[in-house]
Design goal:
single chain, about 0% strand, 1 helix, about 80 residues
């Protein structure tokens, strides 16, 4: 009789363990999908950052050109006596 009690306890413990493992495996697939989404967002952020750096270089170049042009305009105006 005691043996059957121990077998029942072991069976219940095994059922609980399997149930927990199944839930854990379900969560792992969710975590894997979340990790993939995070990786995609990181790649997108890197692309945006690279674009922002290019834009900053372009703005800096345009600013330099504007300063050069402004200097030329000032010289032309000075030559015209304005």
């Amino acid at each position: 009789m005691v043996t059957w009690v121990w077998i029942a306890v072991a069976a219940i413990a095994l059922i609980v363990l399997v149930s927990a493992a199944v839930r854990l495996l379900g969560r792992l697939s969710e975590l894997r999908r979340a990790a993939m989404r995070l990786q995609q967002r990181q790649e997108q952020a890197l692309r945006v950052q690279a674009g922002a750096e290019r834009l900053q270089q372009t703005v800096q170049s345009l600013q330099e050109r504007a300063e050069i042009t402004q200097g030329k305009v000032a010289r032309i105006q000075a030559g015209l006596g304005r």
